[in-house]
Amino acid sequence: MTTAHINAQPHDFAKTVLMPGDPLRAKYIAENYLQNVKPVNTIRNMLGYTGFFNGHRVSVMGSGMGAPSICLYAHELYSDFGVENIIRVGSCGALQAHVALNDIVFAMGATTDSNINLIRTNGYDFAPIADFDLLQQHVSIAKQKTLKFHVGNVFTTDLFYNSHTETTKTMTRFGVLAAEMETAGLYCIAAQFGKKALTICTVSDHILLNQQLSTSERETGFDTMIDIALQSLDTKY
Ligand SMILES: O=P(O)(O)O[C@H]1O[C@H](CO)[C@@H](O)[C@H]1O
Ligand SMILES: O=c1cc[nH]c(=O)[nH]1
């Protein structure tokens, strides 16, 4: 059985799916970290794979950019493919001076300028939060590795390019750690289906300081985040 956007059978996906925005990052994870890999989605080149890491069955698939895109993939994975946990492994732009390039951000919650959850809840202001167990398990791995990480609020925005500088200033003033484009949608979909989700992001840009990681730095930083997400498979969740 396939869905509108995923040409796989229900058993083709593992219970846990790592979801980067970029389908080529999904391919990178599958090719560099997983064993016995099988492609499970090719529709619209939103590449998906299932394989094994340390003996644990796991899938990885791109989400595309923005809440509408991740919401439709998360919906189909939770409703039709038996997926229980979606771990977004993304990039983000820092909104605080103490958050530096390459740091890891765990999204405990997500503020948003998107209407997507208001539409889903028919006008109620749902608070999108991470699954506590997933958050705790992943944070404890980051602690063991003595990585520089932050846990808190992210700003899920519909606009990568926003000319209203006041928006950024407000988010910074309210302690929001970083901007990205999917988490508020993902957390609301997980709640709708009674499933689990967590976003981990690597800081690839600094919005306040106008800094960006180079291509090779991005790769190393992303490897750190991917390691955390995959190592957490050793813990039971
Ligand atoms: O690197 P990914 O996971 O795509 O995440 C971030 O990068 C994209 C914007 O460049 C948006 O999807 C944003 O959330
Ligand atoms: O959404 C995003 C992602 C990375 N960097 C940003 O500044 N914004």
From TrEMBL:
Q: Where does a purine D-ribonucleoside bind?
A: H5, E180, M181, E182, S204, D205
Role this protein plays: Catalyzes the reversible phosphorolytic breakdown of the N-glycosidic bond in the beta-(deoxy)ribonucleoside molecules, with the formation of the corresponding free purine bases and pentose-1-phosphate.
Q: Short name of one Pfam family for this protein?
A: PNP_UDP_1
Q: How does it assemble?
A: Homohexamer; trimer of homodimers.
**UniProt binding sites for phosphate:** G21, R25, R44, R88, V89, G90, S91
The EC designation for this entry is 2.4.2.1
Q: Which CDD domains match?
A: PNP_EcPNPI-like
Site description Important for catalytic activity, residues in chain: R218
User: What are the alphabetically sorted keywords of the record?
Assistant: Glycosyltransferase, Transferase
Query: Which InterPro entries does the record cross-reference, listed alphabetically?
Result: DeoD-type (IPR004402), Nucleoside_phosphorylase_d (IPR000845), Nucleoside_phosphorylase_sf (IPR035994)
Which organism encodes this protein? Aliiglaciecola litoralis
- Could you identify this protein by its name? Purine nucleoside phosphorylase DeoD-type
The transmembrane residues are: none
Q: Domain of life, per the record?
A: Bacteria
What the record says about family reads: Belongs to the PNP/UDP phosphorylase family.
Q: Where is the Nucleoside phosphorylase domain?
A: 16-209
- The record places the active site at D205
Spell out the reaction equation it catalyses: uridine + phosphate = alpha-D-ribose 1-phosphate + uracil; a purine 2'-deoxy-D-ribonucleoside + phosphate = a purine nucleobase + 2-deoxy-alpha-D-ribose 1-phosphate; a purine D-ribonucleoside + phosphate = a purine nucleobase + alpha-D-ribose 1-phosphate
Report the enzyme's class at the first EC level.
Answer: transferase
